[in-house]
Amino acid sequence: MKKYKSLLSVILCFSILICGFGGFDASASVSSRAVITVDGNAPGREVSDNMFGIFIEDINYACDGGLNANLIRNNSFEQRLAWDLNWDCRMTGWEIKNGSGALRGENPLNENNPSYFHADSECVIKNIGYPDPDETDGIYLRKNTEYDFSFYCRGKGKISYYFGNDSGSSPGSDFNADSDEFVKFSTSFKAAETEYVSLYLTIPEGCDVDYFRLIPRDSFGYGDPEWKYTALRADLVKALKDLNPSFVRFPGGCLAEGAYDWSMAYNWKTTVGEPEQRKQIPNIWGYNQSLEIGFYEYFCLCDYLDAAPVPVVHAGLMCQGRGDWKLDIDSEEFAAHIEDILDLIEYANGSADTEWGAVRAANGHSEPFDLKYIAIGNENWMEDYWERFDVIYNAVKKAYPDITVISSAGAWADGKEWEYAWEQIDEKYTDTVVDEHYYVAPWWVYGNYEKYDNYNRNSAKVFVGEYAVHRGGGDQITKNNEYVAIDEAVHCTALIRNSDIVEMACYAPLFARQGYTQWAPNLIWYNSEEVVKTPSYYVQQLYMQNTGNVSLKTDVKGEDIYSAATVDTENKLIYVYVVNPSKSSQSAEIDLKGFGDLDSACEIRYIGSGLWNVANNFGFLNDFISPRYSKTVVTGNKIKKSVGPESMNVFCLSYGGENTYRGISSDTGYKAGTQLEITFFEYLGKFVVWFTATPFYENFIKGLIFKD
Q1: What gap in Å lies between CA 674 and CA 695, rounded to an integer?
Q2: What order of strands is seen across the sheet that includes strand 531-533?
Q3: Are strands 172-190 and 146-164 parallel, antiparallel or unpaired?
Q4: What phi and psi values does residue 135 have, to the nearest 5 degrees?
Q5: CA-CA distances (angstroms) from residue 400 to 124, 343, 374?
Q6: Which residues span the domain enclosing 576?
């Protein structure tokens, strides 16, 4: 009995705490009713095969420090600032512990990456990797994991290294350098402990070192001939695979355009081939890109994810939001850039006997990547963009008429730039897909719920290339709470209802490393040890895993319920999306017309807790908000079910003669559970929430009581 009193006390205290932050009000105990009619007899709208995807941009240390498995920071001493190229390269991530030395650039390892470290006297240098918050050292070694370690050196004498702290540690080793040219040193070791360490390297006087790599052997792609250049962090790749995205947009965003100096503009040709030779450049987010994840790796990742590649190239303009840099249309540089774009398409789609198809095959992928889309520019606007877009568009369509070109509608989905863009599109470019971006407050979602209802059905389709709901307050990761995720779910119902207009959509940004962020919120957070999938992630996953090929007419009667429906005509499956953004549970009646007799089982896949201000976070709250499933029945073509507060629900069932719905397999990531039941009562003049300890909260309650 004492244990249960303790449980009650913890729940009660936590409830009062939540209420103190304004997460609930007394109205949450009131339940209302909504009737949702799905009309299978009315004409449907085709849903694109590429409806929901992902967008990878190297912001928030998404690649280096994230998806890239290499654990050494600033591995080739090329760190610079994009907005101050007069500065020399920096020792970011490195420290000279004793002795003396400096970065030099004469007679380098290669001309693309000229900086290396030279020891003026015998010295020890240290690389801290990417330290997590509250950690001094940042190279996270996992016990019994094998690692490959390599670097280049030039000179004569004994070079030694170890991974540990200032007092010393192991593993470590040494070898004798004896060459007037750079020579690659490679070794491997197994970590004896799970610990945070730094790399310590003792360098003899007069020796040079450059280009370091430390790769865990259990990284994704390790040992695969197709991934011979770069391995990826396995848990992040799994998080992407679990989403089931239909496309991948890369490498930006603003990053794809660059800013401040044309020498630092992103060029796909410098990102393929041997990683040592890839020209490292600063990105616009304030740190360096090793480009060990380049266009070849992006294409291969698309292959693995079974997702359409959507590369973005600049339009002869660098990021317009940061300044006025543009190539003259008649210049040799602009002509060369157009040729680079055409070569990119040949690299992706050409046979191995074409010039750039042969390069792809030499990189490790003999078969074409089946590129269908290419985006020209990002958040560009007005005459400067459209004059250049026209030249590039015509060159691409002449050489590759089957490629779909993606055009830009500017940096926002309204205003004069957006209006001017659609004037150009309606007049000349109705065969493009128009890239619209918006990062919005919650109110915008509801005020613009019918935005695409009013678009011209005879013009171009839309690609919502970057979107997210933003809210004020909280630290960066708690901005990814349930509140904004459910608002995003509401927006997705509007996108599906207008699937004849909206061909593609993806949340942005995708990745964020804890302690290294320039932007929030983000879909997936991580540090050295953990990956945190946000409520927004699970909203995207529910749509990506449960979307048919035809969108059906759906009518909703009732307040605070948003709904859409699709059918998978090949597999005879119905998906009905029901989003309840209110703080009250609601009784929903779904009436399915035009499907014949549907007396059958129905599975509900959902997220939601009613704790709108709660986010998944590092530690025992890692998976607090996550997908669940439950079962119900269809009686007389109707489903009657209560949907919880702040919840997204996908009702999944079969039609066409099947009387049962087999449901999901155990490895999909959904867990059995029931929606949280919430009751309010008044205690000492305050409203307090009481919630039932269902399986949904089992891990959370255990964490509160039994956490070490």
Answers
A1: 7
A2: 511-513, 524-526, 531-533
A3: antiparallel
A4: -115, 145
A5: 55, 11, 11
A6: 2-47+549-706
- Check residue 67 and report its DSSP letter: I
Question: From CA 235, how far away is CA 98, in angstroms rounded?
Answer: 37
Nearest Cα neighbor of 113 from 275, 290, 279 is: 279
593 contact partners, CB below 8 Å, separation of at least 6: 37, 38, 39, 40, 41, 637
Cα 557 from Cα 36, distance rounded (Å): 6
* Residue 497 token pair: 């209802």
Q: Which residues, other chains included, contact 576 with Cβ-Cβ below 8 Å and sequence gap of 6+?
A: 36, 38, 554, 563, 564, 565, 590, 592, 639, 650, 651
CATH number of the domain encompassing residue 19: 2.60.40.1180
Query: pLDDT, tens digit, for every residue of 596-614?
Result: 888 778 999 999 887 778 8
Q: Report helix, strand or coil for 560.
A: coil
Both 518 and 574 in a single domain? no
Residue tagged 């020796």 (tokens): 207
- Is 538 in the same domain as 567? no
Question: 552: phi > 0 → left, psi -120 to 50 → alpha, else beta; which?
Answer: beta
For 57-91, the pLDDT digits (tens) are: 999 999 999 999 999 999 999 988 766 666 666 89
Cα separation, 150 vs 131, in Å, equals 21
Where in the sequence numbering do the catalytic residues fall? 379
For 321, list phi and psi in degrees, rounded to 5: -70, -10
Q: Which residue has the tokens 């255990």?
A: 702
Answer yes or no: is 595 within a domain.
yes
Residue 247: which of 519, 95, 464, 46 has the closest Cα? 464
Same domain, 292 and 382: yes
Cα(219)–Cα(204) distance, integer angstroms = 33
Is pLDDT above 60 for 18? no
Task: List the one residue out of 254, 265, 220, 206 whose CA is nearest residue 518.
Answer: 254
537 within 8 A of 521, measured Cβ to Cβ: no
State residue 375 phi and psi, 5-degree precision. -95, 130
Share the mean pLDDT of the chain.
88
